[in-house]
Structure prediction request, 347 residues.
Amino acid sequence: MNIYSSAPYIFTPSPNSDNSPAIQSLIAAGNRWIQIDGDQCPISTTISLQDSNKNPYHGVIIEPSPNFSTVTIDTSNIGRNPAAPTDPSYAAFEYHGNLDAAGYLTQAANPDRLEIFVNDGSLYSPGDWIFISDASTNPEQYLLPADGPMEIGRVLYTSANSLILGAALKRSHPINAIVAFCKPIRNLVFRDLEFTGDSAVGIHVHMSHDGLFERITAADWQGRTMLLLDSGGKNNTVIDCYCTATTPGIGAGQSIWGIALEGQDQSRVINSGGEQCGAGVTLNYCIDTMAVNARARNNTVNLGVYTYSIRTGFIRPQTASPQIVDTVITDGCVDCYMLDKQPLTLP
Prediction:
């Protein structure tokens, strides 16, 4: 069965009302390739990229029809969670990763190893995807991951107290680190969408594998993050994306990141960046992830590599006029880099 339809579904949006229910219904009905035939497509409620059983909608493509070069997505009516303005679930498009509790490590796990030791191997089956969370190490109280350094893997074989993974670990993990279940989402494509409004996030996706995010932009953005590829992603490409925000900083109501990759493995950001954000491009606890020809100006921090990232960084970044710091690689990062930095050349 082909993952993509032979022809797209042409969707004509309402320029003045919420298009979320219609798009959500189209995806649920099996339409994976949706072309928006209009230049204005307000989204007032979050579009989930999973079904009612929390299974991911693989292969979703959202883009303009050939009649339009760009579609503006106004997320103003999504806004922010009033009780927690940083809550990233207030997004136009979102996938949570279907995290579910399982077990935990009974021994520290080291890089280049295929075997990890867990409290109960019978909880897992070959083919399961697992999420090892270094930030969640108190299994008696909490068996789900927390934000922070992590790694995902796929179970190849199980025994009474260990799991054999399909690929060697790249990161060390402490004893008692949670080993939860997760479900990656594959082959997402978002292109030629311009976000405006103040939702927490424009596109927020956990566990995206082999995704393409192309020419995603934001104008007068008042949200927290335009594009957030969150923990568990692998082999994603962000290309020609740029966020223009209005309230740079790290406060709850400010625009903290233009483009952020967290917990990614072998993903890449190409010819992309941001301005008037807390950071134009952020690479946070990533592994083997790079940004090439990033562009950033007038941000609190223009570009940064953070939180125990490994072999991750920027090649030929172009920056100008930082509000506090131009570029940063935080302590604890390993073999990370900021190579051949250049002054920003404006078009």
